[in-house]
Amino acid sequence: MSETSMTTPAATTLVTSPEISIVIPVYNESANLPLLFERLTAVADKMGRRVEIVFTDDGSKDNSLAILKTFVEKRPDLIRVVEFDRNYGQHMAVMAGFETARGEIIVTLDADLQNPPEEIPKLIAEMDAGHDVVGSYRRDRQDSVFRTLPSRLVNLVRERITGIKMRDQGCMLRAYRRNIVRIIVESGETSTFIPALAQFYAERPAEVEVEHAARHAGTSNYNLYKLIRLNFDLMTGFSLVPLQLFTMVGMGVSGASLLLVVYMLLRRIFIGPEVEGIFTLFAILFFLLGVVITGLGIVGEYVGRIYQQVRARARFRIRTIHEKT
Question: Domain check: are 157 and 271 in the same one?
Fold first, then answer.
């Protein structure tokens, strides 16, 4: 097994390059990997195409990396493993897979088996029909109402704000043409939402319905904070609408405040000093402070994105690529 340390990924040149690359980010998925390997290799073998499977270990703390290394030994013709030096997050793990993948069609898939690997041929068929990005939406989604309801709301808000249409933005099972992947990689964005970015650049996008299953084992790596963080990135990364909306809200609040000042001045003139309304004034003051703080948060999101981009740090660092040569 060849293991080459590097700070930036480089594709390996083979006599026969794969047609299809399946990119899978992995973080603490040791309980799911054996079954995933069994089902995924079976799908790849049945497709009758040249396929490679690229796993990115995103700094797993369990024995996921050790299991992935055994996959390279079992199927050196099929498996490659990208090893990060630490945890960088799911989307950076996918980006590393994009940079190392060699296929003309790149498919992304989660390691938790909620999206069955057996659904991959549906996406490939749409790509063969001439589409450059093929998304998927989940039939009978097997998640709690606390995940599905907010997801629908975010889908609606995202479409209204960004103009990017995706029926199910949270479904990881997607296929991309190499030219789209190259544009995404070359964009160099340090904080991005890959499906939305691909949809933004796509000329002939399509979507297909896929099955959805409950997580095979373990728990989701996305907690509430990460989900909120992801949606902030999505909103601020593709639109100025949040800033524009806040500007309009600020103008409206300023106008209402001016009317209130005029009203209070007239009461002072015609009625005289009053103290009964002091709690109302406090309530109004706290409301205005809340508006100001919210505005600062929105501005801070945009400033933070600018800061991340201009400091030009490496988005991730690959320690080793495990593969047979």
Answer: no
CA distances from 217 to 16, 57, 74, 111, 151 (A): 36, 18, 23, 10, 22
Nearest to 166 by CA among 233, 174, 22: 174
Give the C-alpha distances (Å, rounded to integers) separating 316 from 8, 50, 86, 182, 191: 8, 28, 9, 17, 12
Of 121, 115, 13, 101, the closest CA to residue 56 belongs to 101
Q: 113 and 26 share a domain? A: yes
Cα dihedral: 219, 224, 226, 232 (round 10): 150
127-179 per-position pLDDT tens digit: 999 999 999 988 876 555 555 566 666 666 666 666 667 777 778 899 999 99
- Compute CA distances 10 → 96, 186, 209, whole Å: 10, 14, 34
Strand partners, 136: 208
User: What pTM was computed for the model?
Assistant: 0.72
Contacts of 180 (CB under 8 A, 6+ apart): 132, 133, 198, 201, 202
Distance (Å, whole) CA 319 – CA 321: 7
Q: Which of 154, 204, 155 has the alpha carbon at shortest distance from 179? A: 204
| 2-33 pLDDT tens trace | 443 333 443 344 447 899 999 999 999 999 99
Name the CA radius of gyration of the chain, rounded.
Answer: 25
Q: Cα–Cα distance between 97 and 314 in angstroms, integer?
A: 15
Contact, 126 vs 134, CB < 8 A? Answer: yes
Here the CATH number for the domain that contains residue 72 is: 3.90.550.10
Strand, helix or coil for residue 272: coil
What integer pLDDT is reported at residue 160 of this predicted model?
66
Residues 84 and 206 in one domain: yes
The 10s digit of each residue's pLDDT in 248-283 is 877 777 777 778 777 777 877 777 766 666 666 776
On whether residue 293 sits in a domain, the answer given is yes
